[in-house]
Write a structure and sequence with these properties.
Alpha-Beta Plaits, SH3 type barrels, 8 helices, 3-stranded antiparallel sheet, 3 domains, about 20% strand, Helix Hairpins, alpha+beta, MscS_beta-dom_sf, single chain
Length: about 290
C-alpha cells in the first residue's frame, strides 16, 4: 500500500506541465525550485544581517555604508544562487532568454514603474546619494532614512510617521541630504530688537545665549550678523552649528529662543512689535459752493 502510494505520488509529480525552451517542467521541478528559492531568500537575509553586524562593529564605518554593503552582498548571492538552483533543477538556461522576452513585454505594458524603482534602488545602493541614517528632504517630505529596499525607501518623520517613497523619486527629483558627509549642520535664528538697542551689546548677548546651549558646537563658532534695518526693528541672525539636533531643528530653535528672550529681558533690550505713527492735521475743509 505504502509503496503503491509513493509510486503514484511520484508519477503524479513527474507529469509534464509545460515546456520552456528545451526544458520540461513538472510539478516536482516547480516545488523543488520554490523550496530552494525560499531557503535562498531566508539564508541571504541572515547573511545580510551578519554582514551589517560585522561592519557596524568597525568604528570607522557608518550605518549607511554597512547597510548598503549588506544589501549588495545579498543581491549578488541571490543572483548567483538563482542560477545555480535552475541548473540543479535541470533547467536549460537558454530558456531564460525566452522568459526575459516575456518579462520585457510585461514591462512594456505595465511594469515600467516597478522596473524603474528597482533599477533606482540599485543605483542608490552603489552611488549612495542617500543611506540609512541620513536626514533628507524630498518632495516636501522631511525625515530620517531607516530602510532602503529594492522598490522603495522608508523615511520616518519627527512625528514618528513612516513614509514609503518610491526609489525613482530619489533619482528624478531634487534631494536635500542634511547629513550626506556628516551630521554637522548650521541653523539660522532671526532676532529683532529695538532701534534704541546697542548692536554690539545685542551681538554679545546672542553669543552668550548660543554658548549656554549644550547642543551648540564651540567649533565651528557661532556667529551674529546684523542682517536688516527693518521698519520696526534691527534684525540680527544668530548662526549656530550642531551635530546632535540635525533631526530636531525645531527643538533647537525653540530652546535657543527661550534663552535669548530671557537674556534680552535681563539686559533691558526691547523686542519691538510692528507699529505705525498716525499724524492728524487740524484745519478747516473748504467746500466749493
Amino acid at each position: 500500500m505504502i509503496k503503491t502510494f509513493f509510486s503514484q505520488l511520484l508519477d503524479y509529480l513527474n507529469i509534464p506541465l509545460f515546456v520552456l525552451g528545451k526544458s520540461q517542467f513538472t510539478l516536482w521541478s516547480i516545488v523543488y525550485i520554490l523550496i530552494l528559492l525560499t531557503l535562498l531568500f531566508y539564508l541571504t537575509a541572515k547573511m545580510r544581517v551578519w554582514v551589517v553586524r560585522v561592519l557596524r562593529s568597525k568604528k570607522n564605518i557608518d550605518v549607511g555604508v554597512s547597510e548598503a554593503t549588506g544589501s549588495i552582498v545579498r543581491y549578488v548571492l541571490i543572483s548567483i544562487g538563482f542560477l545555480m538552483i535552475l541548473q540543479s533543477a535541470g533547467v536549460d538556461l537558454s530558456a531564460i532568454t525566452v522568459l526575459a522576452g516575456a518579462l520585457g513585454i510585461g514591462v512594456g505594458f505595465g511594469l515600467q514603474n516597478i522596473t524603474s524603482n528597482f533599477v533606482s534602488g540599485i543605483i542608490i545602493l552603489f552611488e549612495r546619494p542617500i543611506k540609512v541614517g541620513d536626514r533628507i528632504e524630498v518632495n516636501n517630505i522631511l525625515g530620517d532614512v531607516v530602510n532602503i529596499s529594492p522598490r522603495a525607501t522608508t523615511i520616518v518623520s519627527n512625528d514618528n510617521i513612516s513614509i514609503i517613497v518610491p526609489n525613482s523619486e530619489f533619482i528624478s527629483s531634487t534631494v536635500i541630504n542634511w547629513s550626506h558627509t556628516d551630521r554637522l549642520v548650521r541653523y539660522r535664528i532671526p532676532v529683532g530688537v529695538s532701534y534704541d538697542s546697542d548692536p554690539e551689546a545685542v551681538r554679545d548677548i546672542l553669543l552668550e545665549a548660543a554658548a549656554e546651549h549644550p547642543g551648540v558646537l564651540k567649533n565651528p563658532e557661532a556667529q551674529v550678523l546684523l542682517d536688516e534695518f527693518a521698519d520696526s526693528a534691527l534684525i540680527f541672525i544668530l548662526s549656530v552649528w550642531t551635530n546632535t539636533f540635525t533631526e530636531r531643528p525645531l527643538i533647537l530653535r525653540s530652546e535657543l529662543n527661550y534663552i535669548i528672550f530671557k537674556k534680552l529681558k535681563a539686559h533691558g533690550v526691547e523686542i519691538p512689535f510692528p507699529q505705525r505713527d498716525l499724524h492728524i492735521r487740524s484745519g478747516e475743509i473748504k467746500k466749493d459752493v
